[in-house]
Design a protein that fits this description.
The protein has about 425 residues and is mainly alpha-helical. About 70% of the residues lie in helices and about 0% in strands. The protein has a domain of about 180 residues. The radius of gyration is 22 Å and the shape is globular. It starts with a helix and ends with a helix.
C-alpha cells in the first residue's frame, strides 16, 4: 500500500467514524427520529394484519397503538406514517421489518442502512484508490459527514442508494455479479426514482452492462410478483388509493408541493426539483412544471444520445452516471437526502483530474461545491445564522431565494458539466477514429 493510499484510508476511517457517531447521536437527540421509516413500517404492519395499507383509516390504528402512553407527534409526522406512498413492490422488503416490534425494527433498519451506506462509500473509494486515493478519500469522507439526514430521517433512500452503488461496483469489477443483480433489483423495486437512472445508464452503456441491466429488471419482476398479488388481493384499488396518497401532500402548502408558499422547499431535507426555483417567479404548476421539463428534457435527450454512441470503457460509464444522477433529480420529486447519490460522481471526478486538461482542473471544484451545497452541514449553519427573526422583513424574499435556489441550480450545473465532459470524450473518440 502506497503512502497516498494509506492517507486516503485514514480519511475514509475518519469520515466513517464521524458519520456513525454523529448520526447515532443526532438521531437520539431528534424530537421525532426515524420519521420516514414509519412510512414503510406501519403500512407493512397493516398488510400483515390483512388490511388495506393504502387507506389511512386502516393504517392509523397500528400507528396509534405504537404511540400509546407517548406524547402526540406533529400532524405532519402522523400523516407521513399513515399515508402509504411506496408501490406494492416494496412490501417484499418491508414486511420482514413489520414482523418485529417497533423498537427492534428501528435498530435493525438503522444498522442495515448505516452499514450499507458505509459499504457503498468504501466500494467507491476502492475504485478510485489506484488513481487518486487522497482526493477520493477526502470527497467521500466529506460526503459521509455531510449525509446526516440519512440516519436522522431513516429514509429508505439510504438503503436504495447503497444497493445501487454496490450493484455498479459489482458490474464494473465483474465480481459477485449475482449479488449486483439482486441489489439493483431490490433498489428498483423499492425506490425506482433513485435507482432508475442508474439502471438506464447501464442499459445504454453497451452489451455487457445492458445484459446486467436486463437481468436486474427480470429479477425485479420476479421479486415483485408475489407482493403485487398479495396487495391486489387485499387492496384491489391500491393504484388509485396510492395515487391519492401521493397527490394529497402535493396540494398547495403540502409537504411535497414545490410551490413557493409550501413547506417543501424550506428547511433541511427540502424538495430540490427545479419546480421550486420556477415557482418563485410564478407560483402555478401550469407554469413551473412545463418550465422544469423544458430545461431538463433536452439535457436528458442529449445524455441518451451520447450514451448510445458510447465507444469508451468504464470511464464513459462513470461520466454517464455523474451526469444523469444530478440531472434526474431536477424534473421529478426528490428531496435533499437523495443527493447522497452524488457519491457516483466521485470516480468521474477522479478520472477527469488525471487527464490534467481544462476539464480536469474544473472537475474537483465543481464536485466539491456540489457536495457542500447539497449536504447537511452547510444548511444547518445557514438556518442557524439566518433565522427568520434575524432577517429584516423587507429582506425576507432574499433569504427565501437563498434557501431555495442553491441546491437545484448546483445540481443543474454539475449535471451539465459532466454531460459536457461526456460529449467531449465522445467527440474525441470520433476524431481519433477519423484520423485512424
Amino acid at each position: 500500500m502506497s503512502n497516498a493510499q494509506r492517507d486516503g484510508l485514514y480519511l475514509m476511517l475518519i469520515g466513517t467514524l464521524v458519520f456513525v457517531l454523529l448520526g447515532i447521536g443526532l438521531t437520539n437527540a431528534t424530537p421525532a427520529p426515524m420519521a420516514d421509516f414509519k412510512a414503510v413500517y406501519f403500512p407493512a404492519r397493516t398488510l400483515l394484519a390483512h388490511h388495506d395499507p393504502y387507506i389511512e383509516s386502516e393504517v392509523a390504528p397500528f400507528y396509534e397503538a405504537s404511540r400509546a402512553g407517548l406524547p402526540r407527534e406533529a400532524e405532519k409526522i402522523r400523516m407521513v406514517a399513515i399515508q402509504a406512498v411506496y408501490p406494492p413492490t416494496a412490501f417484499f422488503l418491508t414486511v420482514p421489518f413489520a414482523m418485529l416490534p417497533w423498537k427492534s425494527a428501528c435498530v435493525v433498519w438503522i444498522i442495515l442502512m448505516l452499514g450499507g451506506f458505509i459499504a457503498a462509500t468504501w466500494l467507491i473509494w476502492n475504485l478510485c484508490a489506484d488513481e487518486s486515493p487522497v482526493v477520493a478519500g477526502a470527497l467521500i469522507a466529506f460526503l459521509l459527514v455531510n449525509s446526516m439526514l440519512l440516519p436522522i430521517t431513516a429514509n429508505a433512500a439510504g438503503l436504495a442508494i447503497s444497493l445501487s452503488v454496490v450493484a455498479v461496483w459489482c458490474f464494473l469489477r465483474d465480481r459477485f455479479v449475482l449479488l449486483g443483480v439482486m441489489c439493483l433489483a431490490i433498489s428498483l423495486a423499492f425506490k425506482p426514482h433513485d435507482a432508475g437512472p442508474v439502471w438506464l445508464c447501464l442499459l445504454l452503456a453497451g452489451p455487457v452492462f445492458r445484459k446486467r441491466a436486463l437481468e436486474s429488471l427480470l429479477a425485479t419482476v420476479v421479486l415483485s410478483i408475489s407482493a403485487i398479488l398479495w396487495v391486489g388481493h387485499l387492496a384491489p384499488h391500491w393504484f388509485s388509493e396510492m395515487s391519492l396518497n401521493i397527490a394529497t401532500p402535493a396540494l398547495p402548502g403540502g409537504l411535497t408541493d414545490p410551490g413557493a408558499a409550501s413547506q417543501a422547499g424550506h428547511g433541511l431535507d427540502m424538495v430540490i426539483t427545479l419546480q421550486t426555483v420556477f415557482s418563485t417567479f410564478i407560483n402555478n404548476p401550469r407554469f413551473y412544471n412545463p418550465a422544469a421539463y423544458l430545461v431538463c428534457g433536452p439535457l436528458l435527450l442529449a445524455w441518451i444520445w451520447f450514451m448510445l454512441r458510447r465507444r469508451g470503457g468504464n470511464e464513459t460509464v462513470w461520466l454517464g452516471l455523474a451526469a444523469i444522477v444530478p440531472l434526474s433529480m431536477l424534473p421529478i420529486y426528490h428531496r435533499q437526502l437523495d443527493c447522497a447519490m452524488l457519491l457516483l460522481a466521485v470516480p468521474a471526478c477522479v478520472d477527469l483530474m488525471k487527464r490534467g486538461d481544462r476539464l480536469g482542473k474544473l472537475a474537483l471544484p465543481v464536485t466539491w461545491i456540489a457536495l457542500i451545497l447539497t449536504g447537511t452541514l452547510y444548511w444547518a449553519i445557514f438556518f442557524a445564522v439566518f433565522t427568520a427573526d434575524r432577517v429584516p422583513k423587507q429582506l425576507g424574499w432574499l433569504r427565501a431565494d437563498a434557501e431555495i435556489f442553491p441546491v437545484p441550480l448546483v445540481l443543474l450545473a454539475t449535471g451539465c458539466f459532466y454531460l459536457w465532459a461526456l460529449a467531449r470524450r465522445e467527440c474525441a473518440q470520433d476524431v481519433s477514429q477519423a484520423a485512424a
